[in-house]
Amino acid sequence: MSAAPRVLAGERGLVTRPWRLPPARGSELAWVVAFLLPYAAVFTAFVVYPIASGLWMARAPSLYRELAANPIYGPAVVNTLLYVGLGVNLQMFLALLLSGFFMRRRWWIKVLLGVFMLPWALPAIPAFVSLHWMLIGEEGLIGSLLWALFGVRGPVWFSDRWLALGADIASYIWKWMPFWTLTFLAGRMAIPHEIYEAAEVDGAGGCRRFVHLILPLLGNLYLTCTLLSILWTLGDFTTVDLVSGGAPAYSTNVLATLGIHYTFDAAQPALGVAAVMSALPVLIPVAILLMRTLQTRELQL
User: Fold this and answer.
1) Do 240 and 161 meet the contact criterion of CB atoms below 8 Å apart?
2) pLDDT in tens, 168-215
3) Of the residues 11, 234, 244, 296, which has the maximum number of CB atoms within 10 A of its CB?
4) What is the pTM of this model?
5) Any idea of the CA torsion for 166, 168, 174, 178, to the nearest 10 degrees?
6) Sequence-ordered alpha helix ranges (H) in the chain
7) What is the rounded CA–CA span in Å between residue 31 and residue 159?
8) Pairwise CA distance, residues 244 & 82, whole Å
9) 172, 165 contact by CB (below 8 A)
10) How far apart are alpha carbons 78 and 65 in whole angstroms?
């Protein structure tokens, strides 16, 4: 670090001397170490060690050959792609649309927004367990309502792979869409009101305002939220584990729940870690794209 000049007044005029920071005292260095050491220890224990240990456990190529030969691994990969692709994109698009609805200045819409946020505010475990029992079959709430109102017997959701996977995706969207709706609502509210007024004066309707005003202004926010949601959803096992439980016959497992199954149920932790680590070819590009997006946004600011 270059020393900045310091100007002093002397008998012969102004004298320029280099400015130097005073040497750190022992007590100050001790405070710095005492402040940083706990964070370094926590980061090492909960970030560095688990990642390094997982990579070490899943280093053998034979684990991935065993995974590929297992008949439940291929469906788990397909389920993960559908679960992440449909779940993330549907919830983001619906959240963006709903954020425009909640921009309306009416008291009943504000009340409705509070009710709409309840699924996100609920703890995940009791919420997903309740959804499981609502869909458990004819005895569940959905089946009972269909029979009582329309005289129709509802489907046995967890006996069909695609119905069970659809229930998992719908439950995930129901739980997390309010959070992203609130995020996009905050983004819309940050747009100056004069821009909305100028678009209205120009005769732009709702669709034109959405395409030419909202999407360009919220594009970076939408992309960032989508990438974050992809990262979180790839590691999510709570929804599938509690709603469908992988039924029927492990056909709705995603990579996260498959890793849990191998690690705890089958007592093969190395194979479980390998199942989770097989998502790295998707995780790493998404993480890099997210960081580049944030850096681009920072440069624009």
Assistant:
1) no
2) 999 999 999 999 999 999 999 998 888 877 877 777 777 888 887 888
3) 244
4) 0.83
5) -120
6) 26-43, 49-57, 61-69, 73-101, 107-116, 118-121, 124-134, 141-150, 161-190, 193-201, 206-209, 215-234, 238-243, 255-260, 269-277, 280-300
7) 61
8) 15
9) no
10) 18
